[in-house]
Protein 1
Amino acid sequence: MPATANGVTVDFRALIAQQSVRRRRWQELREGLIERFLLLNGVLAVVLIALIFVFLFKEGVQALESIPLHRLIGSEVRSFLSGTMEFRMIWQPVSTDPKYSIVPLVVGSLMIAIPGTLIATIFGIGIGIYLSEVASERVREVAKPVIELLAGIPTVVLGFFCLAVLATVLQQIYDTTYRLNALLGGLGVSLVIIPVIASLTEDALRMVPDDIRAASYALGANRWETIWRALLPAAISGVSGSVILGIGRALGETMIVLMAAGNAALVTANIFSPVRTMTATIAAELGAVDHGSPHYYALFLVGSLLFTITFFVNLTAEVVINRARRKLKL
Amino acid sequence: MNTISKRAQSAGWIAAIFLAVAPAGAQPVKKITVKGSDTMVLVAQRWAETYMQSHPEVQIQVTGGGSGTGIAALINGTCDIANSSRPIKVSEKQKAGQFGSAVKEYKVAQDALSVVVNTKNPVGVLTMQQLGAIFTGEVNNWKEVGGRDAPIVRYSREANSGTYVFFKEHVLLDADYAADAQTLAGTAAVAEAVANDANAIGYGGVAYFATRPACKILKVKHDPNAPAVSPLMPDGKSINYEAVYDGSYAIARYLYCYTPGKQKPGVKEYLQWIVGPEGQQIAKQLDYIPIKP
């Protein structure tokens, strides 16, 4: 309503309307800018990953020009004792006759990732179940942040702990020849993965609707039977997704294995023997290698292989976890 | 190095720049490219830094890459001085000779390596052949070299290490290390591993092990009939320079600089300075062994 004062008519409503239009326009502009900024960030992340991918493979593929494919599996080596030529899989890039077998490195990575993930699965799922189903609210409030804190410890500290403390303990228990070995590396890596699996397992269990719990108890099941027969099967996608994610983390872990796994490139299934992972090889050798040498490209090839493996492992985990979310929301 | 001397250095630098730029702006800059041995890169860089301070008209660029890389660059004419931790091969000398006069050789320092075991290990002496057999994987039990019945746990260095290459060339006679030799980053890590492992054997610069408890530096024999010689003085701390100079300690070598027969201006003076008292003092400070005075 127009108001009159000293003969001047002021249309407050129109004024307010005008102001709010101006404000809305400014808001729209601002939101548009923010939206574009976020979009740019998202696109940039994807583009960066794509560029890393391209760079890695571009360098890695060049290894095949200087190293024949079969030499990446193994080569004929003269045996010291018998003097005969035999086929052996050796990673020995600095040599008069360099040997670039990737097999021991892949085996080494698996020898760390498999025991590491197994140990972490047992403890991680146990902790997850405890936090979600057993622990009281007060215990959970303390225990959960503590476990998540474990994930925040720098891996070099965990590696040092393995090297200085766990190695001696393990050697005394199992009386092993090698102080640094695959089991020690696996144990160290499991310390990193346990919080991942525990936290994702807990999330998965909490997402199970309470109806299922109630139904199970109503049918006369006790708590153990409810967890084992009703909740875990309902949450299995989320739980297995967390384990797969753990495998990806174990394959990519570098510092702990570099310090604790012994770094001898052996093709072995013995958990008490030292192993050399793909990650440790790259970390140890890339720093001082001649740019453009076959060794340099071979390391990039190892990197591309590692990237591909972890990419697909993580992709699988993502798909499995998403499927679980969708299923439980129904 | 303390801050005062650093400050004095930087002051010297600034003064040097002014001196170089102001009165003698027309004086040509002598550029020297040095390439080669990774073992020598540490001392070569220190030499270059120190020399450039007193000789502002000289610019020295030092890169590693390995002895072979350095000599190859010398042959191709892409470096003025090649650092090498091994003598030049006859074939390399011939290749370099195709492009003019013969290669000149300078012995610029010496280097000794020690082999260590745990103090719990009764073995105190090994021959060069036994060392080679142990690290190539021919010998796998301490019993075979006069010790207890226990497996040998080999600790080696990463392949990019100059020590790795020297040991491989000199002790393993260029054979490959045993596949189960564990590679560690740095001689300090080798010392730590050997100190914690009763069956271990490792190698590295003397300085890393001399003061370390639970590590025992082995005496080495050229062959079974030669005397056993330690790289350390009887006090167990300082380096036994004499044993290196008279060649009785087997795992020692000369470090070389090679130049083309026709040297770039400034190169000769630089190398004379390196083998002189000032250059040799720097080598000694960095735990290399100065050439025999």
Protein 2
Amino acid sequence: MSNDIIDGIIEAFSLMFTFDQEIWGVIFVSFRVSLMSTFLATIVALPIGSFIGLREFRGKKGVSNLINTFMGFPPVVMGLIVFLLLSRSGPFGSLGLLYSTTAMILAQFLLAVPIITGTTKAAIESIDPSIKETVLSLGANERQLWWELIKDSKKSIIAGFLVAFGQAISEVGAVMIVGGNIRWDTRTFTTSIVLQTRMGEFGMAIALGVILISISFIVNYGLTRLQARGD
Amino acid sequence: MIKITLLEIKNLSKYYPKNDKLAVKVLSDIKFSVNKGECFVIIGPNGSGKTTLLRILGLLEQPTAGKIIFNDKDLTHLSRKDIVQYRRKFSFVRQKPVVRNTTVFKNIAYGLKVRGMKPEDYIATVKETIKFVGLEGFENENARSLSGGEIQRVAIAMNFVINPDIYLLDEVSANLDPMNVKLLEEFILKIKQDKTKTIIMSTHDPLEAIKYADRIAVLNNGQITQIGSPNEIFTTPKDEFTALFVGYENIFHGIASIDKSTGLNLIKINNLTITASSQIEGEVKVCLRPESIGVVKDPPKNTSYRNTFKGIIENIRDLGNICHLIVRCNSEKFLITITQLSRRNLGLSINSEVFINFKATDVKLL
């Protein structure tokens, strides 16, 4: 067993530094799916989160609770839901999207929206109310106020984006269910690691693991740097 | 000058909910009107509701009940779109100003930018205003990196540049250093010069109220207890609270002009002429502390006091060791503080004829 580990590590580094084609294919799919889903989620979540954070309306508490619940939604269950929606007999089965990167993007998008909505809402709500009032009393309309507050909370919003991205790229359950782990197509870091481990190809699994951890580290480092910045 | 009512506040109340059913009354049944071009000062102690009242007027908060009529329009029930349009007629300078996280220039230009003005149309105005508040050289600094006093100047400039119809100033001079107080004074006087602009300001400082006010409203515990000219408020306070709060000073409106031959500053107050050593000319407010005025029974001879008037005691209030005399000289009433001992020695009673005197140096002109 200890031989397996050492051999695995040696193989992993040789794979990484020889730029094995399969590894790069997997990295490309992972990044494309995670970035795309987080980016689309931001476009949708930013207006929703800031609207909830900005306005007072009936049922705001309920909506906030709902968002908080969905922020910790189990990815596997999301995978199941998207699978059922896209499967042949499901309501969107005719689109033929199951086992495609589009399906993976959709699942991760649905997981990321509540996260970014929640962080945006919290960021907007945490802004000193006197800033809001000053901007309003200087004559800003709601759109202009909104833009001011977004600018003021850009740090938290970027943080929300990074958290969602970090979760998307390291997520396995949902992409496995809806993507199907098809080689050269829907295979990602995580699904690949699962497969390679099962097959005893520890070198490949470790190489992917190291890269994934490195990405996590970079994202986290970026987050810390962002939060350490004074302004 | 014809008085045009600009703003009418009708039965305004504000309650904050607390523990579901109990409500905290912040303002109750506030009624007053403000004329165009007037400086209306709300005085009251901390916690009397001044800020809430100004916030409601600035359309930053909804009243629980009541109306604000501006140009025949009720401002308490506006659509979201209309609120922005009407809010743009006001500017609101906060006690503790905050600035946006950007440069001084962009902060000051913001009000014009949101009104849809193009940079080429406002650069000159903004630069001029920056010069006025003495922030030249700071244009490209981040406003949040400035000191408290400098931030206050940015705030003044931000609100001045948008040229609103009504300025709402919320205790703006509290916590300011002398230099900034002077700047603030220039700012307020500059607005007052423009007779089309209206100021509604709050303060807890009676002297500041006298300095700027055309009319004063006394706010205590969420209720307006008295509205009147500074003279009325300070000479005939309606209740003990007002009397105690304002410090009961002698304040008169007059026209000052320096006599060329003697070099003395003569102030005409209706048909009374007072001599002051201060060199301010024109329309002035004359303040005199009650303890600076002396009282004698017989016409004084060879006195060093520049001001001596004959009067009649209208009222006497006992205050322990001292007492307050209200003495009418011609058209004007003076409040004078003397000790009970000298009152007895002089044998003063209501309707006694007396002479009052005070030094030209004790006359304060605002």
Protein 3
Amino acid sequence: MLTLIVILPLAGFFANGLLGNRLGKPFVTIVGCGLPLLAFGIAIKSFLDLLAGGGAPIVETAFTWARIGGQSFDIAFWLDRLSGIMVLIVTGVGSLIHIYSTGYMKEDKSYARFFAYLNLFLFFMLLLVLGRSLLVLFVGWEGVGLASYLLIGFWFEEADNARAGKKAFVTNRVGDAGFLLGMFLLYWATGTLEMDKINAAFMGPTAPLVSASLVGILLFIGASGKSAQIPLHVWLPDAMAGPTPVSALIHAATMVTAGVYLVARMSGVYMHAAFASQVVAVIGLATAFFAATIAVTQYDIKKVLAYSTISQLGLMFLALGVGAYSVAIFHVYTHAFFKACLFLGAGSVIHALSGEQDVRKMGGLARKIPVTFVTFVVATAAIAGIPPLAGFFSKDEILWFAFSSSRGGSPVLWAVASATALLTSFYMFRLVWLTFFGKSRMDPKVEHHVHESPKSMTGVLAVLAALSVVGGFLSLPHFLEPMLPLPEVPESLHHLETPLLITSIVIAFAGLALAAFFFGNGAVRAARVREQFGALHRLLSGKYFIDELYERVLGRPLVWLSDRVFLRTGDRMLFDGTLHGLAGLARRTAGVLSRVQNGNLHLYAYLVIAGMAACLAWSFRHG
Amino acid sequence: MLLLLAMALFALGLMGVIIRRNLLVMLMCMELMLNGVNLSLVTFAQQTGTAAGAVLVFLIFVVAAAEIAIAIPIVLVLVRQRRTLDADAYTDLHG
């Protein structure tokens, strides 16, 4: 059953990859969307089985991968409440985005290749989520990295896109190194890679003889690569080079949350790693805040959403850091709906404007593409935390535990997180204003072509918007409580819950009001502020110049080292020099010897005689 | 005695191969060397009373016949091209 969920998208990959181009678009559409939907159906069935069983994990061993010593490494799938939620998100939102893609990618010449890659991604993501052992998870982890690379560089004819894919892959490798080390350490200490056993070992009476914080930090390095946290966040904004459905599926709803899932899954380790948890919380919060400030100044509609994703992921890590694992998963779940909706809405806008992504060349689109507009606004309200939409519930819980958790919550964390929430609300409504309200700033040629997207796209938008509205009413933390208990809250803080709740509502509306104030009326006030704080604006729109810093500190020295030391000194001088030297020696020697072979029969005869004479002489001497 | 004759035949052939430049003469001298060897083989066979030497002689006959059957046409083709029998004229196969 579980194996089938994983295998179906793989079958789709092979069918579309090998036969898609020959059998035409209808075949690709049916296979590409049908198999994920089927997987979704089976996932629901399995989830219901899980509930019927009272939440006892369903385990299924597909086969034994390797047997080394007495240890067997199984490809085993594990469905519990946590992975159940993730599987439903991955297959459910995944299927929706597949359906959307049939409209978005309709005109693309590599239609079959696109669906093959999407299915491949789904396969690896399900492997990641359902794997029982870290080993299977790691295979999925690398696999989604590969799929992400292939899809970011989907339009690889343009060098920039290919470069963005490469950047994502290389940045992820840095994180993976940490992840691998963490895995080695865990295996060395506990003798198993199965995550339930590792957690049990750490929760047991005698903790393994390894620093939980060290393991936690190493695993978090891996998570920060995949989930784009500081300092490995630089790849995600560039990853927007891929087609928009890819940004929605991989770089918003599912793959980037893999890091959050990993930390939540290994909660047994993190519960004993106070220091690592602190690091997670601080890095997460810093990422959330800085990414939000960058998002305020971006003009590319997808870049704004990308930084918003980084920021939201940061909030999830903040929740993980203060021990509220289930709350982080709650935010993963609501975020999947509204961020997918936002990205797909942005895709619909881009589609309508024949490829335009710059918000400075949009404006006044509300009447022209009403469905996109309405769904986009709903999702924006959800991410901004306006009650009673989905984002409000999850974000409010994060803020609450950042403030009150006995596992490292503090007013400082709450204050910065609230500032982030304010910024989130502000930049999202800024985006809405610039895109949909005000006067049109479009190119007349583009404006002439503006059209609402086909049903396959708007339908998906409507479904996701509806989920963004109602998704929050499902109390996920309560559902996950049996396996991921919430951190305790000191009694003295309970009375503050309602005031904080009201504050977070006020913050959400304040962001909306600020955006309306600055960007209403032709954005004149925003322009004035921009002029007044020119230096700050340059810093923010330059993304804190982190890419440039990496280029200076890492890129150039590496290029210099490769060029001067490895290429010129090592490769050309040492290796090529040695080999050319040897070849030259052989050639010169041969040049001398070849003079003997002058074609004169008599000389040969003399030489034969000389040789025979020498042989005879030698044999007489030694006879 | 016969061995001395064999040695003389061989030495004569060898000298011819080394000194003469006419291709046909060189070939004939090679035959001379082969026959010198044959003679010595037969003599040894007689002396030791075994048949091995005599058998070897027949082998050498066959080889010599085959060799000359190929060598003569090669020389003919060469001569047709260059109109000379001088071995020193054919140094095309130098290194």
